[in-house]
Specification:
The complex is a heterodimer. Chain A is an all-alpha fold. Chain A has 18 helices and two strands. Chain A has one domain (about 5-485). Helix content of chain A is about 75%, strand content about 5%. In chain A, helix 4 (about 110-130) packs antiparallel against helix 5. By secondary structure, chain B is mainly alpha-helical. Chain B has helices at about 5-25, 25-55, 75-105, 110-130, 130-150, 155-185, 190-205, 210-225, 235-240, 245-270, 275-280, 280-300, 305-330, 330-360, 375, 380-390, 400-410, 415-440, 455-475, 475-490; strands spanning about 55-60, 70-75. In chain B, strands 1-2 form a two-stranded antiparallel ribbon. Classes of the chains: A mainly alpha, B mainly alpha. The interface between A and B is medium-sized, with 30 and 34 residues.
């Protein structure tokens, strides 16, 4: 397929082209959706082409232009970025399929604008995945923030407006106020913003200053939602469910934890991280977020809100993995990007399906609904297993490696946190399908007679992600191999 | 011909101004103004290229060499400012055609264009002259023409704002002329390069060193008043709010910028960095004022209900960024200041022009009147969002480039609290930009169908500036290397 650099460029540009097609075909719904699906599939094919190169040990690279002297906008595909690109690239067409059923079933307005910004957001996610230096990463990180605002505020109601404020406010405050300062500081100290195995900051300043920069980075990546900068994620739940599913369970939030991992591995380097005082503190900050997130999820009756807090909790698993500063932690964190993505998107798909088919948002009103929507709730069950970390779902592996990481770092306390959080998850996630299948419906509920499932395109999407979740239990090798390349310094 | 370009740059608009007034009809006067300003623009670009290739150009007016005659002296810093003024002027005059036709009564159009030409002439003159008294003369030309243009605003408050500016501006000009006079008494020279040699001699002789210090103070206060550094900014918000839209866009992008340039010229060329920063400890005065300007004026901007006024207060805050850059006294800091001159001119020009489009269609720029404009005037509001992104400092816009250098300059000196304040300023910009966006995109209006998009005559110049704010944010290589070299020239460190 020609020059690797060009493939990278196309992978980022294709969703933009798709967005253009969506605008052009706005008067014909079916053609418009076909455009989204086809560009989605072609984009993913490009990602697979890149995957082949990366597995062969190549590092496709493309320098686009010099923005300010010595600072380039450039792309580079390394294994960690590949993990993120694979997840986002695969789930985009699936989510589009789901969205077709959802948006039509829910009679949403302004669907063209929705699909347009959706595609643009994927371009942003691809840009984040393939960014070749910290500057490019920051550019696409902010790009992703801005192009998801119209999606979050899609309904243009008073509530959407408020959520938009929280969303932009927190994400920009952290990124401009903390992350950008850290990036410029890195530039002043290291004189480069490139990602290098072993990091670029080692030996450039005292441990105290580097520890401070690490804190700026971890809290500056607001998309990783480490408390207290997590409020934007529940706020973003006012968006239509496909947005919550792909962007706020996968693309946007994973862009955040991906950034944290990337900075940990390629800007600081594992060796340097181990010597910094704040690394352990941040690991504990992530641990606190894990527990508090789970506890809040416990108390939420609104299903999407519960899933949002579960996401906050799960994201901190990955931050924790990075801050363990050892190979197992990094591998576990990277794999959890993929595993959590497939599990959580299944849960959101199910939640949206329930909303469209049964018009229920609250868990207490879903009792007995399992009998009318067996496939949806079955998928929910599988997704839950993955999030909790139980076989036969992929999440078991990432949690396994994270647990090994805590042992290697001799942090038994953190291991206990992981276990406790899984126990909490066992309750707050499994409660939903269990009550749906085994409890009696509430008196005043008007559930349909017989089977009344999610819209068909949505149902297909749910089945695909749920099967993939189980598939990754049997075949987790691909993600493990890529993460192994990251820690063993195969690239860049 | 080409040796005379430095003089023609200033003289052509000056001579065309009376012609525009004499023609006394809107169309021809506009054509004359456009021809004059575009001539200056093309000349400015040529001069910049020549200065970049060959170094500073000096031109003796009438063949009399300095210090006896008047010398024009164009180095990188002045060439850069000349390009800023003339390019914004060139776009502004295109914009003015439609906007002025809507906002100013027909019989005054010719006078308006004459004033515009004089203003451009004055601002360019300040930037290229190498003579202190000449600075004062051109400053008065640009100020008087500015007062008259502001007074042409539709709102009757334009008259009082113009008068307020007249009083404040005259105080500033008087301070400047007193400073120049004192310098002349002490050194017997008015040529900048000559002064640069004589001032240290007078200072070191110990006789009259107090007079030099007083002259420095008068000049500093006078110029900071013209550039609206907090707390001497009181004239600016009213002047920007009530003047005609075309004037606001043009002035916001040029006049304060030239004053900032003048400040640098005085500090670094005439007095020298050592005197300004070590003897007079300028940084101790400028940095706190700049930081207060950034925080306080952004805060005030957040609470405005008139968008032009909001942008005016934001301008005062942005002047704070430029002065902050200068107050570091380092190459990186001054380069940040210089690059922000250009960057802010581009983005604020775009924002004010977008407001001019709104004014053209709905006759108001109050926030509550802008409901539903996201739908009714998508291109206009798109331009506002584009310019707004730059104000916030989103990467790949010019605003980001400014912040990149400014924060670097702060961190390189270990002043992390200054870096923090710069970032807080960006976030405050987010609040006041978002405030407008929220109203325009989240609220509906009944007469949505009746409001049409602004005419192309306004949109095209506006989008030229929006495009520039992205272009020079994506490819900032040229602007930043010119700014860095200009800073090196000002400080006298050769690369």
């Amino acid at each position: 397929m020609g020059d690797p650099g060009m493939i990278v460029l196309f992978t980022v540009l294709l969703p933009v082209i798709g967005a253009g097609l969506v605008l052009l075909l706005r008067n014909n719904e079916n053609a418009r959706e076909a455009a989204t699906l086809i560009t989605g599939a072609v984009t993913f094919a490009h990602v697979l082409a890149l995957l082949r190169l990366v597995r062969a040990g190549e590092v496709p690279r493309l320098d686009i232009l010099e923005v300010v002297p010595n600072v380039w906008l450039s792309f580079e595909v390394e294994p960690l970025g590949m993990v993120f690109a694979l997840v986002a690239g695969f789930l985009w067409p699936i989510t589009s399929l789901y969205a077709i059923g959802y948006m039509r079933g829910h009679h949403e307005e302004n669907q063209t604008r929705f699909f347009f910004f959706f595609a643009i957001a994927i371009a942003g996610a691809m840009g984040v995945a393939f960014s070749g230096n910290l500057f490019t990463l920051f550019v696409f990180y902010e790009f992703l923030t801005f192009c998801t605002v119209p999606l979050v505020t899609h309904h243009q109601t008073e509530e959407a407006k408020k959520s938009g404020r929280i969303y932009l406010g927190i994400l920009l405050t952290t990124s401009v106020g903390l992350q950008l300062v850290a990036i410029i500081w890195t530039w002043v100290l290291a004189g480069t913003l490139d990602f290098q195995t072993g990091g670029i900051l080692a030996g450039t300043a005292s441990t105290g200053i580097l520890s401070a920069i690490l804190v700026l980075y971890v809290y500056g990546v607001g998309k990783a939602a480490v408390m207290p900068f997590h409020r934007w994620l529940p706020a973003a739940m006012v968006a239509p469910t496909p947005v919550s599913a792909l962007l706020h369970a996968v693309a946007v939030v994973k862009a955040g934890v991906f950034t944290v991992l990337k900075i940990a591995v390629y800007v600081f380097g594992i060796d340097l991280l181990q010597t910094l005082t704040t690394t352990t503190w941040l690991a504990w900050a992530a641990a606190v977020t894990i527990i508090l997130g789970s506890l809040v999820a416990f108390k939420k009756d609104n299903l999407k809100a519960r899933l949002a807090y579960s996401t906050i909790s799960q994201l901190s698993y990955i931050v924790l993995g990075a801050m363990l500063a050892n190979e197992m932690g990094i591998i576990g964190g990277g794999m959890h990007i993929a595993m959590h993505a497939f599990g959580k998107i299944t849960l959101f798909f199910a939640a949206g399906g329930i909303m469209v088919a049964a018009h229920e948002k609250n868990i207490s009103r879903m009792h007995g609904l399992g009998r009318t929507m067996p496939i949806t709730f079955g998928a929910f069950f599988i997704g839950s297993l993955s999030i909790i970390g139980l076989p036969p779902a992929g999440g078991a592996w990432s949690k396994w490696f994270l647990g090994m990481g805590t042992l290697e770092a001799s942090q038994l306390g953190l291991l206990a946190v992981l276990m406790l959080s899984s126990l909490l998850g066992l309750y707050y996630l499994l409660e939903v399908p269990v009550k749906a299948f085994f409890f009696k419906p509430p008196e005043d509920a008007h559930h349909h007679e017989g089977i009344h499932e999610s819209p068909t395109p949505s149902l297909i999407a749910i089945c695909i992600t749920a099967s993939a979740t189980m598939g990754f239990f049997l075949w987790p090798d691909l993600f493990h191999e890529l993460m192994q390349m990251v820690v063993s310094g195969g690239a860049p | 011909m080409s040796q005379n370009l430095p003089a023609l740059l200033v003289v052509v608009p000056m001579l065309l101004a009376p012609l525009a007034a004499l023609l006394n009809r809107s169309g021809p006067a506009w054509a004359v103004a456009t021809a004059g300003i575009w001539f200056s623009f093309v000349t400015a670009i040529q001069l910049l290229q020549r200065v970049m290739a060959e170094g500073a150009i000096t031109y003796a007016m009438g063949g009399w060499a300095a210090p006896i005659g008047i010398e024009l002296r164009i180095d990188l810093a002045s060439a850069f400012v000349v390009v800023i003024v003339s390019s914004i002027g060139a776009i502004g005059v295109l914009y003015a055609r439609t906007s002025v036709a809507a906002e100013i009564s027909e019989d005054r159009h010719a006078l308006f264009y004459a004033a515009l030409l004089l203003n451009v002439c004055g601002l360019l003159g300040i930037s290229v002259t190498g003579d202190m008294f000449n600075v004062f003369v051109f400053l008065e030309i640009s100020s008087l023409s500015a007062y008259s243009m502001i007074a042409l605003g539709q709102d009757r408050r334009a008259l009082t704002s113009a008068f307020q500016y007249l009083i404040m501006g005259s105080v500033g000009a008087t301070f400047i002329v007193i400073g120049i006079g004192l310098l002349w008494v002490m050194t017997g020279s008015l040529a900048m390069m000559d002064l640069a040699e004589r001032i240290p001699m007078v200072w070191e002789s110990g006789q009259g060193d107090r007079t030099i210090a007083v002259a420095f103070t008068f000049l500093t206060v006078g110029v900071t008043l013209k550039l609206a550094l907090f707390p001497l900014h009181l004239w600016l918000p009213n002047a920007y709010t009530y003047s005609p839209s075309a004037v606001t866009g043009y002035m916001a992008a040029t006049s304060t910028k030239v004053s900032v340039y003048l400040l640098m010229r005085f500090f670094f060329t005439v007095f020298g960095k050592e005197f300004s920063f070590e003897q007079m400890q300028l940084d101790m005065v400028l940095m706190p004022l700049a930081l207060v300007a950034i925080l306080a004026m952004s805060l005030v901007a957040i609470y405005q209900t008139n968008v032009k006024r909001l942008l005016a207060f934001s301008s005062v805050a942005q002047v704070g960024y430029m002065v902050l850059g200068i107050s570091f006294g380092s190459v990186l800091g001054i380069a940040a200041g210089i690059i922000h001159l250009f960057n802010h001119a581009v983005m604020k020009g775009a924002l004010f022009m977008a407001m001019g489009c709104v004014m053209y269609r709905i006759g108001s720029v109050r926030i509550e009147d802008m409901k539903g404009l996201g739908k009714a005037m998508p291109w206009t509001m798109g331009a506002f969002v584009g310019g707004g992104l730059s104000m916030i400092g989103v990467p790949l816009t010019v605003g980001f480039v400014s912040k990149w250098y400014l924060v670097q300059a702060a961190l390189a000196e270990g002043r992390w609290f200054v870096a923090a304040i710069v970032m807080v300023g960006s976030l405050m910009a987010l609040i006041y930009v978002w405030k407008v966006v929220e109203v325009a995109y989240f609220q509906r209006r009944e007469d949505e169908a009746e409001i049409r998009e602004a005419p192309l005559g306004l949109l095209i110049p506006t989008y030229a500036l929006v495009a520039a704010s992205f272009w020079f944010g994506i490819d900032a290589g040229t602007t930043s290397s010119v700014a860095i070299s200009a800073a090196e020239t000002l400080l006298g460190v050769m690369p």
